[in-house]
Specification:
With 274 residues, the chain is mostly helical. The chain has one domain (4-143, 182-268). The chain contains 9 helices and 4 strands. It has helices at 15-37, 45-67, 69-73, 90-108, 112-137, 158-165, 184-206, 212-229, 244-273, and strands spanning 4-8, 11-14, 238-239, 242-243. It has a two-stranded antiparallel sheet with strand order 1-2. The protein has a two-stranded antiparallel ribbon with strand order 3-4. α1 (15-37) packs antiparallel against α5 (112-137) and α5 (112-137) packs antiparallel against α7 (184-206). The termini are far apart.
Length: 274
């Protein structure tokens, strides 16, 4: 784990912030490439992606703060501003970005799925970089494990803090590292890379069936996130028998099924007309 990469005077470059920036740039360039490949105007992406990114960051941070207010922010509210240290909830960012896209589509009078199909095709690569940043920072870790895939995070990491201050504590204050945990960050990063490859293959072939790519992404990620949540070991807000993210995943799965159904209907209509 290397949360802080290097420091120059008062400026500290953190792994999480760097991974977020790299993820955004790679997603942006991939979206531009998909536009060119499908005969669309790539120039409009700059302002759209900037608004989407800003709204997603705001939503992801707001959701995380609400979920972890008592543990992390009640006694230090100014820490809310330190997003470079991690602490983003993906679903919060997804909801905020979706609302921004709805407004954008209404103002520009464009088809919503015409926009979302492109963006969700590249979203997983940005998400994968973000999860690598989580791993390097040490947040979003998994449950304790004795398996060969277990990872120990160093003293001062989120896993170390939780294990050392639990009731009863699992670690002494002088422990050099945490007990081994499942690297859920790497599992989700790898799954997102696979999803990215599939959607980038699918989009040029099915982008005319608006809603199809969006539905495929929402269904795939909802199932992925629901499964990964069962492996998470960091503090999770519960909603009945599920974590809050699992509960949201069920809602996302339903929305994804509706989007996929819409896309398939578009295909049937096009076949009928032809």
């Amino acid at each position: 784990m290397h949360s802080e990469l290097f420091q120059i005077g008062p400026l500290t470059l953190r792994a999480f912030g760097l991974c977020m920036a790299l993820g955004f740039l790679v997603a942006w360039q991939t979206a531009a490439w998909l536009c060119r490949r499908t005969g669309q105007d790539a120039d409009r992406l700059a302002s759209l992606l900037m608004w989407v990114m800003l709204s997603a960051l705001f939503g992801a941070r707001a959701a995380y703060v609400l979920e972890h207010w008592r543990q992390e922010f009640a006694d230090a509210p100014l820490a809310i501003l330190r997003i470079d240290q991690g602490g983003l909830m993906f679903y919060g960012g997804l909801v905020a970005a979706a609302l921004t896209l709805v407004v954008y589509a209404l103002v520009r009078r464009e088809h919503l799925f015409g926009i979302t199909d492109l963006l969700v095709a590249v979203l997983p690569i940005g998400h994968a970089f973000g999860r690598l940043g989580c791993f390097m920072h040490g947040c979003c870790y998994g449950k304790l494990t004795d398996s060969c895939v277990g990872v120990r995070f160093p003293k001062g990491s989120p896993a170390w803090w939780e294990q050392s201050r639990g009731i009863p504590p699992l670690l002494g204050p002088d422990a050099a590292c945490s007990l081994p945990v499942i690297p859920t960050q790497l599992i989700e990063a790898a799954a997102n890379l696979l999803l990215f490859a599939v959607l980038c293959w699918l989009y040029p072939r099915r982008h005319a069936q608006r809603g199809l790519v969006t539905g495929c992404y929402l269904i795939a990620y909802a199932l992925l996130r629901f499964a990964v949540e069962s492996l998470r070991g960091d503090p999770r807000l519960a909603l009945g028998p599920f974590s809050i993210s699992q509960a949201i995943s069920l809602g996302v799965l339903t929305v994804g099924a509706a989007c996929l159904s819409y896309g398939l209907r578009q295909q049937r209509r096009a076949s009928t007309v032809a």
